[in-house]
Specification:
It is a single chain. By secondary structure, this protein is α+β, with helices and mostly antiparallel strands. It has a single domain, classed as Aminopeptidase (3-Layer(aba) Sandwich). The protein is built from 6 helices and 7 strands. It has a 7-stranded mixed beta sheet, with helices on both faces. It starts with a strand and ends in a 6-residue tail after the last strand.
Amino acid sequence: MIRLCNSMDTEEIYQIINDAAQAYRGVIPDDRYHNPYMTIEELNQEMNDGVVFWGFEENNKLIGVMGIQDKIDVSLIRHAYVRTSQRKSGIGTKLLSHLMDLTTKPILIGTWNSADWAIRFYVKNGFRLVSPSEKNKLLTTYWNVPDRQIETSVVLCDSKWSS
């Protein structure tokens, strides 16, 4: 079941993100990976900044989460994670489809350029990579990330996006 998450879910969202983000260890640049990958304070800040999390729940337990953030003329998909033990079971696709149905705006997604599994997932679900120059512009316009993350990331867009 997909449901809207609330502040009571913060600890569980935190656990899911940090469990799933272990896949980044040794894949993304060492200077961008740390443990925990996202602190509880960073998660709370993301939520305060307008990231709305939706969760996939089974047996009253969240097993996947994905956020959506309204940015005036676009929607950003943020922090898409499924528990390691539940990967490749369709949960990410279900969450993404649900979030895509929530907005009529173009959707943008940022991820690490070395996270080839994430890029393949989004492409399989109808997204395409933007050019490197457009990526740089989008990351500085819609995200608040350091230059090093901009260097090592990609942006994907849906069919509603026109540059």
